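Data availability (excerpt). The following record was deposited with the supplementary files.
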Amino acid sequence: MAYLVNPDRSLPWNALPLLPLKPHYYQSVDIYEQLGNAKAALGRLQGRSIAIPNQGLLINSISLQEAKASSAIENIFTTDDELYQAYSEQRSKPLPGPAREILNYREALWEGYQYLLKNENKFDEEYFTRIYRIITSFKDGIRPPVAQVYIKQGGSGHNAGKVFYTPPRGPVIVQEKMQNLYDFLNDDEKYPLDPLLKMAIGHFQFEAIHPFRDGNGRTGRIFSIHYLTKKGLLDLPILFMSRYIMEQKEVYYKGLSGITQRADWKAWLLFMLKTVEVSANLTYTKINDIIAAKDAILQAIIDRGNVARPEIMVNALFTQPFTKVKHFTDKQYYAENTARKYLDELAGMDILEKRIISGSAYYLNLELYRILSE
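Predicted structure:
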């Protein structure tokens, strides 16, 4: 039976086929070759990450960049300086709009990861709703039939504002299609399939169902990373996927619409597998650069011999680009005057750059900032 497409973009696609997908849509030499490349790159990344003594050094850095890139896909922009400053102040001062949304994404990335660990790695309505609520700050859940949701063409071109997709709508329709998605993701005996293919198929299905009023793109990208951790392909959600998707934004959306209009699953699967490959290689390189920079700075501090417990100092400097004296005193690493003395000393060594912003002193880790900005 042929895959039923969506002939009228202005009408809800209530005929969106349930999963699983017929094998002939993904059983091709091209797809399996790209699958092999993606799995090899992901395996190399996993092998490198588990060899790092303190993975917490990577968590903030990689997840902040993932949050920034994923939000940029939805036209939510902020500068690196604004983002890192906001992150360093997030518990003590109100945050600006774009930075707050990006930090919400990062929070959702980790909240969802922890939820799956506690919930036997089962995807369910509670999981997706939690992600959606954190990302958007809304308190509702699965959209009701009264929500007239349309996906419209963006930009300022000839077709700007025109409807190019209308997701399913109606009593229990969205819930039924989401339940089918949960079953597909959770039941590997009933639906046996390579996890990378399953992730790519599940990502499309989620975006096609479009279960929430807002935040579906960001929720779907977070889910994709979590599915890889659920399957043991990564220990932590540190895959930096959104940068490649942002760079290939038109291809990403073309791939989604290609399925709804032409059942072109091959182009979509090849794109998503390529995304995993490129992203794994990028993340692998960033991890190596971060570790090399950390080791070099630690050795420089040890050689100077003026900082007590230099490992603690360097570990703290690599948890986020901007550091404050408060970050050291709150964790009781150093007394206030001692922390300030050490940070000023590292600024004198050109390891940090001291900035006075709104009367407060911030210390920018120049090497970490450079690596994350590349």
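Summary of structural features: The chain has a mean pLDDT of 88.
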